[in-house]
Write a structure and sequence with these properties.
This protein is mostly helical. The protein has a domain at 43-106. It has helices at residues 2-9, 32-63, 69-103, and strands at 115-117, 120-122. The chain has a two-stranded antiparallel ribbon with strand order 1-2. Helix 2 runs antiparallel to helix 3 (69-103).
């Protein structure tokens, strides 16, 4: 049993010395602008997901209120707040896209997260400084 698990979980020929093929490289492409761009995009995505789930939960609460005025009013207020939040998120995205097209700058564009497949990360370039 122990031999079977060690065979399944073990990896062979793992070279973790600096300078090995596929090793980490310096983060030369990271700038303040790329960090801000990533944060703006991430905030828009997270806010959209949060407001979507608020809308769904508010709708479920409204259906399950059973005619109780207080529960119905609370659920309706939650749905209204969620809809306003979704409108704000989409408006912010539209404004950012408009600013990008008018001024020719990239605020949330050109984000490369890479592709994680088969236990390896592809699509990102990381370089180590040479000694």
């Amino acid at each position: 049993m122990v031999t079977l698990l060690s065979t399944l979980l073990a990896q062979t020929n793992v070279d973790i010395t600096p300078g090995a093929t596929g090793s980490f490289n310096s983060l030369t492409g990271v700038t303040i602008g790329s960090i801000v761009s990533f944060l703006v995009g991430a905030v828009l995505i997270v806010a959209g997901v949060i407001f979507f789930f608020m809308l769904v939960i508010g709708g479920i609460r409204w259906v399950l209120s059973g005619g109780d005025k207080a529960s119905t009013e609370a659920a309706r207020n939650q749905v209204t707040a969620a809809l306003i939040g979704v409108v704000i998120v989409f408006s912010a995205f539209a404004i950012i896209t408009f600013i990008q097209s008018v001024f020719g700058i990239s605020i949330i564009g050109n984000l490369d997260f890479g592709n994680v497949t088969g236990g390896s990360v592809t699509g990102t370039t990381i370089k180590t400084p040479t000694k």
